[in-house]
Task: inverse folding
């Protein structure tokens, strides 16, 4: 190729980019970091940046903690509710359940059914040393079935189920025992409204039973209101000799109860009515879900307010750095480079605040019960009273998808907050900025 052709090709080729002058280059990162550092003349801007950082950190941490506590509430309540209540309830339609042993044995043979528990249930008034207590629910179950009900049998606090199996006593919750002033070996008096039939009408049935064991499920409502009684004794007490009201089924996967319905109906070999735990507790768990979603939306406003602080801080920074931006433009910096500099400046606050918030939220979730106990000791009051909130401890369960959603939301709001100030900086006219300098 001749020299003339070479010169012509070189002239036609675009000029080579300076090394390190590409998007998000070291030069742009250096300028962005310089604008983040606090200076004496820029105290107001530094304070706004610090407030933005703290706001995002607290907003992210609050979201993570609140969502984890609400998830913990749902998981703990679900575990305890499904631990003592059947996942599927079998009830008779045309005739009483007098063949409950055979029906329960056939249903328990269905794959996926862990336990089929015949039950007699009724409401009573209980009394003890401390006088009459509140109402209670008596559940008549077989001793073998109660031993397989892990949430009860593995949480016996006093006594044992040996006496229960021998038909020599009942098992009551610890909170009921405390409220009545009773312990193992004492007798609890039960009063049933539907008792013996006399010429003068039906009189309440009153009978005392020794306490064979006390259990603590961990849900105060159940620990204060449930009495387990041997099935045969409960049948006699409630005038239901040889009958049960229902058979409660405990399955391996409570979320898959719909798939078990045809097999259970076939195994029953008689007309039955089936209801599952979702139907019986739909209002309760729907309310929890609605509350959880509403809390997420409300607490997102904290992060939004912090993001608005980023906007105000960057707008003031752009106004303060107008002279510097004009000089950078006259030195060859493109409008895209200026925009990226301020994008990185604002994004650094959002990323750092989000990261700090995640760390703070995780630490609080891991120690939420200790923190509750500390503030209870500090204030001298019971924070998170088990009598009001049903659970004896404050639960927290972090879920990966929700934590990722909080992080993405915080980062997205932070990046969106930087767009307008960065665009405004990139549109600054250097001639106007330097006219009066």
Result:
């Amino acid at each position: 190729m001749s020299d003339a052709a070479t010169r012509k090709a070189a002239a036609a080729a675009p000029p080579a980019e300076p090394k390190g002058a590409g998007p998000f280059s070291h030069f742009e990162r250096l300028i962005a970091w310089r604008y983040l550092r606090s200076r004496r003349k820029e105290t107001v801007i530094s304070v706004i940046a610090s407030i933005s950082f703290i706001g995002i950190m607290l907003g992210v941490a609050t979201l993570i903690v609140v969502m984890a506590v609400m998830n913990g509430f749902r998981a703990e309540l679900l575990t305890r509710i499904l631990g003592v209540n059947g996942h599927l309830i079998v009830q008779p339609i045309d005739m009483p359940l007098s063949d409950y042993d055979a029906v329960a044995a056939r249903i328990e043979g269905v794959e996926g059914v862990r336990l089929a528990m015949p039950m007699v249930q009724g409401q009573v008034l209980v009394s003890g040393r401390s006088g009459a207590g509140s109402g209670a629910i008596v559940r008549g179950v077989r001793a073998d079935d109660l031993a397989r009900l892990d949430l009860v049998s593995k949480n016996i606090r006093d006594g044992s189920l040996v006496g229960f199996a021998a038909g020599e006593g009942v098992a009551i919750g610890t909170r009921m025992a405390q409220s009545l002033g009773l312990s193992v070996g004492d007798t609890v008096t039960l009063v049933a409204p539907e008792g013996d039939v006399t010429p003068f009408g039906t009189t309440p049935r009153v009978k005392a039973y020794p306490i064979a064991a006390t259990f603590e499920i961990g849900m105060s409502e159940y620990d204060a209101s449930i009495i387990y009684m041997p099935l045969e004794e409960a049948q006699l007490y409630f005038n239901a000799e040889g009958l049960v009201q229902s058979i409660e089924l405990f399955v391996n996967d409570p979320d898959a109860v719909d798939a078990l319905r045809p097999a259970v109906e076939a195994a029953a070999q008689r007309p039955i009515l089936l209801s599952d735990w979702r139907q019986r507790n739909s209002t309760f768990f729907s309310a929890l879900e609605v509350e959880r979603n509403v809390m997420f939306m409300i607490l997102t406003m904290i992060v939004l307010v912090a993001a608005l602080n980023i906007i105000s801080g960057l707008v003031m920074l752009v106004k303060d750095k107008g002279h510097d931006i004009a000089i950078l433009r006259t030195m060859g910096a493109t409008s895209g480079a200026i925009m990226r500099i301020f994008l990185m400046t604002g994004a650094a606050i959002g990323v750092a605040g989000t990261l700090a918030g995640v760390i703070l939220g995780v630490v609080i979730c891991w120690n939420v019960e200790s923190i509750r106990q500390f503030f209870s000791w500090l204030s001298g009051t019971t924070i998170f009273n088990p009598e009001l909130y049903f659970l004896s401890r404050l639960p927290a369960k972090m879920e990966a998808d929700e934590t990722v959603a909080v992080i993405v939301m915080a980062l997205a709001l932070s990046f969106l907050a930087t767009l307008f100030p960065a665009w405004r900086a990139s549109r600054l006219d250097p001639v106007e900025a330097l006219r009066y300098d």
